[in-house]
C-alpha cells in the first residue's frame, strides 16, 4: 500500500519568547485511504501536528512527506502548491462565505486550479450530492443547520479530489448526534481519500480505523495507552 503522509522524527519548538516544545520526535506513517483520529488532552500538540501535516507550519527538525513529496526543502510557494493540489482542510468553525450560495461556496475550492467557472460549479454540484446536500444548492449558509454547514465545508474540501483530508475538531460545534453523522461521513471517505482528524470526542475517534494518542508532544505507544 502507498504512503499518503509520513513524519520522521519531527520536533516543533515555537520560538521565543514562549519557546514551547510542542512536538518531540514524532514519527507517523499514514497509508493511502487510511482514516486516523488524533486524540489527546489540551496542549498535547494535536493542532501543531495537524498544521505540520498540512504544511501550514514547518517542523523545527525532522522530515515531512506529503503524497510522495519531501517537503523539507520546498519554498513557501511550492508548499502552497502541495496544499492546493493534495490537501483539503475542514475546521470546527466551517469558514463558509455568507454572501455566496452553497454551490458557489463549494466551487471556491477549485479557484486555484485554473478550472473554468462552469466546470467548478458542475463539480461542486457532484460533490454536494455525495455529501447529501443536492437539495440545498441555492441556499445561503445562514439558512442551513450546523451539520449541513459542515457538510458544505467538507464538500468544499473534497471538490479538488485531494489525496488527504485534514480536519481539526470537525464536530466541535455540533450536537452529539449530528457530530456522529459528520464523523460517519468522514469515515466513509476512507479507502479513496486519506482522512486525519483531531478530536476530543472518543465516539468520534472510534469512527476512524486508527487512533493515535498524543501526550506532551509525543505519540503514545499503543501499549502505553490507558
Ligand atoms: N503559535 C504558537 N506559539 C507558541 N506556542 C504555541 C503556539 N501554538 C501552540 N503553542 C503551544 O504548543 C503546545 C501544543 O499546542 P497545540 O495547540 O498543538 O495543542 P492541542 O493538543 O491542539 O491543544 P487543544 O486541544 O487545546 O487545541 C501548547 O503548549 C501551546 O501553548
TrEMBL record:
Residues 7-225 form the ABC transporter domain. PROSITE patterns: ABC_TRANSPORTER_1, ABC_TRANSPORTER_2. SMART domains: AAA. Keywords: ATP-binding, Nucleotide-binding, Transport. It holds the Pfam family ABC_tran. The keyword Ribonucleoprotein does not apply. GO terms for cellular component: membrane protein complex; plasma membrane. One of its GO terms (molecular function) is ATP binding. It comes from the Bacteria. This is Peptide ABC transporter ATP-binding protein.
Amino acid at each position: 500500500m502507498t504512503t499518503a503522509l509520513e513524519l520522521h522524527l519531527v520536533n516543533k519548538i515555537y520560538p521565543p519568547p514562549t519557546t514551547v516544545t510542542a512536538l518531540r520526535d514524532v514519527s507517523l506513517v499514514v497509508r493511502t485511504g487510511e482514516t486516523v483520529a488524533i486524540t489527546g488532552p489540551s496542549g498535547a500538540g494535536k493542532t501543531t501536528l495537524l498544521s505540520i501535516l498540512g504544511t501550514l507550519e514547518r517542523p523545527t527538525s525532522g522530515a515531512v512527506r506529503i503524497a510522495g513529496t519531501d517537503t523539507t526543502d520546498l519554498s513557501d510557494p511550492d508548499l502552497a502548491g502541495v496544499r492546493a493540489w493534495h490537501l483539503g482542510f475542514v475546521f470546527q468553525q466551517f469558514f463558509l462565505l455568507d454572501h455566496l450560495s452553497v454551490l458557489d461556496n463549494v466551487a471556491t475550492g477549485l479557484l486555484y486550479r485554473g478550472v473554468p467557472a462552469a466546470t467548478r460549479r458542475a463539480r461542486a454540484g457532484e460533490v454536494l450530492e455525495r455529501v447529501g446536500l443536492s437539495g440545498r444548492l441555492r441556499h445561503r449558509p445562514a439558512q442551513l443547520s450546523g451539520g449541513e454547514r459542515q457538510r458544505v465545508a467538507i464538500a468544499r474540501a473534497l471538490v479538488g479530489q485531494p489525496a488527504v483530508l485534514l480536519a481539526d475538531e470537525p464536530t466541535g460545534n455540533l450536537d452529539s448526534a449530528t457530530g456522529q453523522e459528520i464523523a460517519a461521513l468522514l469515515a466513509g471517505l476512507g479507502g479513496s481519500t486519506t482522512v486525519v482528524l483531531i478530536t476530543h470526542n472518543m465516539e468520534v475517534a472510534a469512527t476512524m480505523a486508527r487512533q493515535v494518542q498524543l501526550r506532551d508532544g509525543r505519540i503514545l505507544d499503543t501499549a502505553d495507552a490507558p
